[in-house]
Amino acid sequence: MDTANANENIDAGKNSNIQNMDIAEEAQINLNLKNKTPKLPISKIKKIAKTDPEYMTTSNLAYIATAITTELFIQSFTERTLSLNQIRTKSKNKRLVYEDLAECVVKYEEFQFLGDVVPRTKNLKSLVKENKVRYTTQQVEEIDD
Amino acid sequence: MPIDSDEVSLPRATVQKIISEVLDPEYTFSKEAREIITKSGIEFLMILSSMASEMADNDCKKTIAPEHVIKALTELEYNQFIPFLQQRLYEYKGTQKVKEKRDDKFKKSGLSEEELLRQQEELFRQSRSRLNNNVVMKKIVVIIIAWIHNKIHSYLFYIFAFFI
């Protein structure tokens, strides 16, 4: 091969290497950006916040902070429920259900505010026995004390 | 529980991703439980927003700022979240700077979006053809080596070598 051609090829190789690096760099940057922005969509967060009658103007960065914190909360709830399940049940069942969440809410103070969202369920029979409800075929009614 | 079409919720797949990050891989949540987790997240969000409003009010501010969200966490006794939140806010601000830089670079280059897309496609095409050339070169080299070592006998070997 001509040395001239060879040199040209080397240069072309170098340039293309640089271009390849740019593409790879770009992809890496995009990945980093993705990992560091909150996963929850800000648009939904805004909508939810606005359902509050006492809603106040909120800066974009404050919305980001809210999104991040909500993600942290979801993970905290998940982790606590998981560890509670692992401590309490000796079963090898790896499926977490409603009752596990309800249990977590009862046990840990930080989740008490979810008392109405995740109430412990009781079956109808035991409630009737405890004289807490009466029922007909049409409806179930709570008995007020 | 029927889903109220008036109520805003969070995307299921996103909530699942967030859960998966911390859940042991062998574990799963029931569908019902996942929905409850989403509802709980929304409930938390509302309480947080509400408290952040209060904090802004106390500061005589008309707009909620991130610092009010942080104060709200203290009031709600979720102090443990604060260092994580601060770290991630810091990282987020960093990404915004990178984005700005990148956008400026594009603006300065004076190229339209179409031109940029065309250039990008050209780069991909070049790298693809280079990759193909390399593979063909390697196959040719292997076949030549195989021939040198086996001269007459192994037709099968040539074929095998070609398909490596």
UniProtKB/TrEMBL annotation, chain A:
GO terms for biological process: DNA-templated DNA replication; regulation of DNA double-strand break processing; subtelomeric heterochromatin formation. The keyword Phosphoprotein does not apply. Pfam families: CBFD_NFYB_HMF (PF00808). InterPro entries: CBFA_NFYB_domain (IPR003958), Histone-fold (IPR009072), Transcr_DNA_Rep_Reg (IPR050568). GO terms for molecular function: protein heterodimerization activity. One of its GO terms (cellular component) is chromosome, telomeric region. Residues 39-105 form the Transcription factor CBF/NF-Y/archaeal histone domain. The keyword Magnesium does not apply. Gene3D superfamilies: Histone, subunit A. It comes from the Eukaryota. It is found in: Nucleus. Its main location: nucleus. Keywords: Nucleus. This is Transcription factor CBF/NF-Y/archaeal histone domain-containing protein. It comes from Henningerozyma blattae (strain ATCC 34711 / CBS 6284 / DSM 70876 / NBRC 10599 / NRRL Y-10934 / UCD 77-7) (Yeast). The gene is TBLA0F01380.
From TrEMBL, chain B:
Residues 9-73 form the Transcription factor CBF/NF-Y/archaeal histone domain. The keyword Membrane applies. InterPro entries: CBFA_NFYB_domain, Histone-fold, Ncb2. Signal peptide: none annotated. Keywords: Membrane, Nucleus, Transmembrane, Transmembrane helix. GO terms for molecular function: chromatin binding; core promoter sequence-specific DNA binding; protein heterodimerization activity; RNA polymerase II general transcription initiation factor activity; TBP-class protein binding; transcription coactivator activity; transcription corepressor activity. The chain crosses the membrane at residues 140-163. One of its GO terms (cellular component) is negative cofactor 2 complex. It is found in: Nucleus. One of its GO terms (biological process) is negative regulation of transcription by RNA polymerase III. The keyword Transmembrane helix applies. This is Transcription factor CBF/NF-Y/archaeal histone domain-containing protein. The gene is TBLA0D01840.
